């Protein structure tokens, strides 16, 4: 890239230009729920206009259950017309338009019959007599398919240790004579019985068999083709499949012959081994579940991926759940997606970002904010930002917000003092739409995440540790209890200590499986960890030896693998990283008892590298201020510009700190030592390290000999005026709206005003709303929500956003930590100014008072059955505090 003068831009200059004005493709997206399907085109246009104005990048259209007593029908002519209308309108607004290829989840519907529906193994046990018998094959449930029968010595209370497959003659099993108590074991293929979850009207039906290619083709023909045709291939971004979630899906009719073709032996004589925990059955269990994985890959993921690519589309997939898919199963899709927060754990987001690292996908997305500060409308911009930081630390760089409910917006009667009804909300999430009272801050929030996502797509993410996923060992613990979710079982198998120890030490990691080892460079990870691994395939074993030959260290966590250095304590793993391995940023904690800061238990870093530059994203994920020292691999102690540097390099590496909200450069310095960093709760910092010494001239230097002091001035004489009041009134601070009886269910804005005067000679004037205080929130999971919800566990000094004006001119927004804003350019020393803080709260007050929502739910249940359960609405006002909750001061230098 060249400048107007013809000079080539350096890597860091190009990075900063992109950071200031990032590619629109990196904007956050929204999952757009259509309930019913029952939409009005005016509502669709309003939603798209609001998204575009707020800086969102587009929608993922998702079709779910009705929210009322009447609805159009999924895939009807009028419904498909609405899809076309919405896609065209999105295109007109330069918004991306993605489609979920179905209604609810997983894929399925009325086009799926008993031959293509998901199936599971069902086991029957019966004690039988000693004499020989011909036993009729039972048909216990409609559409059951008999697989095989087995006989073993034992009782119902004393299970058999070994079984023999029985001969079948027509509709009978031939049971030979025995010598004592015996148990008859029957293997039956049974429909899983699972129907679509959260289905739209007309979409009801069985979930499809993800291991049967006929099922995939049936779904493409009946659902995917008409949806894509309606939207128009040229208007689509990606086509999407949610997490599989097919409960207990561990059988398909073609499995016996596919197993024998792939594994080289007949599975039926040993199928009974799935019901035991015996050591002798481990190899068969591993082979069995490996076959399930291969069938899902080839008969579902590849079928949909090939179909999408044949149309010039990308297939985006959440590749986890049941049937058992693994990390490398992603490779048959085009775009990889995860879900769930947990920067120091094994999450579905880490699952997806590891696959992206292995298989060369620069963009990896997440279904984000699924349960953010539930129930709906309790989320603040700080909650949303904090969870986004967590995802960025895991390698996510594209957000699909969960989500935006399409809804009519009922208006209150002009004569009514009651708040207007809200309209529709999704049963299980944050509602991240323009009904939020704080929506004025949305462009700043989404713009901040836009910049961060763009920046975290540049170059490649650096990770020092590879954690092996011992899929064969994990799958041997599935047994006959229907536990076939390899992702969830992997979390349990690896545990929490190892990923936490790595992340808090400043290291990053990727998961890899046996298929990945076939494509990974043995020199990729300086440290490889084998967590409680026993059954390692020969090919992977050879690759691990190659890791050692390349200078890497292999650790045998648990001492069961028979390879590498045995380690019993996961906490010691970071210390075993080879000394020659480069860690871009090492973290060390330091304690400041006076300020109450803590160490680095809540601070993490992720680094990306490109063309001599490194991007470091550092975030405090906790509710307390944190202080750490960052030690950069590129720092050179004592090296000044032009001296003490390696031959061919002008001076030390340069470190810049960039502001994700504004795109500005906040600081530039020579990197000659460790950097002490203090972060407020849920605050993040962006550092860019590079080799361009010319940019050191950007560094701001204080005037020589000037002593810099900070004077903190309190502000008095505050007045407040709510949006529905005609005149302001005096108010004392702190001022919490919920403590006024008339404001207990108020969602909206109030303007606080005061006069300020800045002393003569002031260089810098900063408005400080006050400290953020740690606060243990009400636990929504314990109160009945289905999942743990993310929230910033603090009480901020403003609830929830403050728009700042000086003399009625906008200066900025305060919506995240630290709640401070530089007023220097807007005020004049010695002059009186009017300071205005326009405070907006959350919309959960309206949710708590909304009598219309329970009526909608009741109508839907009466007309369409209980397809969903609404959130725990009695938590709508838990922990909610609105208003100006601190006492602002001016910090003057």
Compile the SSE list and pairings:
Blueprint (H helix, E strand, L loop, with lengths): L10 H10 L8 E7 L5 H14 L3 E7 L12 H16 L3 E8 L4 E2 L9 E10 L4 E4 L8 E9 L10 E2 L1 E3 L2 E4 L6 E10 L14 E2 L5 H19 L4 E6 L13 H9 L18 H29 L3 E5 L16 E5 L8 H12 L4 E5 L12 H13 L4 E8 L36 H14 L4 E2 L3 E4 L2 H5 L10 H9 L2 H8 L4 E4 L1 H4 L9 E5 L6 H12 L3 E5 L7 E3 L17 E5 L13 E8 L2 E8 L5 E7 L21 E5 L6 E6 L4 E5 L4 E7 L20 E4 L4 E4 L6 E2 L4 E2 L12 E9 L7 E4 L4 E2 L19 E2 L2 E2 L1 E6 L2 E6 L5 E3 L9 E9 L3 H6 L2 H13 L18 E2 L4 E4 L1
Parallel strand pairs: 1-2, 1-17, 2-3, 3-13, 13-14, 14-15, 15-16, 16-17, 19-20, 19-21, 21-22, 22-23
Antiparallel strand pairs: 4-12, 5-11, 6-10, 7-8, 7-11, 9-10, 18-25, 24-27, 25-26, 26-31, 27-30, 28-29, 28-31, 32-46, 33-34, 33-36, 35-45, 36-44, 37-43, 37-46, 38-39, 40-45, 41-42, 41-44
Helix pairs in contact: 1-9, 2-3, 3-4, 4-6, 5-6, 8-9
Molecular structure report:
With 893 residues, the protein is of the alpha/beta class. It folds into 5 domains: 24-112 and 196-249 and 296-416, TIM Barrel, CATH 3.20.20; 119-191; 465-576, Rossmann fold (3-Layer(aba) Sandwich), CATH 3.40.50; 585-698, Immunoglobulin-like (Sandwich), CATH 2.60.40; 711-892, Galactose-binding domain-like (Jelly Rolls, Sandwich), CATH 2.60.120. Helix content is 22%, strand content 26%. The chain is built from 16 helices and 46 strands. An 8-stranded parallel β-barrel has the order 1-2-3-13-14-15-16-17, surrounded by 6 helices. The longest helix has 29 residues, at 282-310. The radius of gyration is 30 Å and the shape is globular.
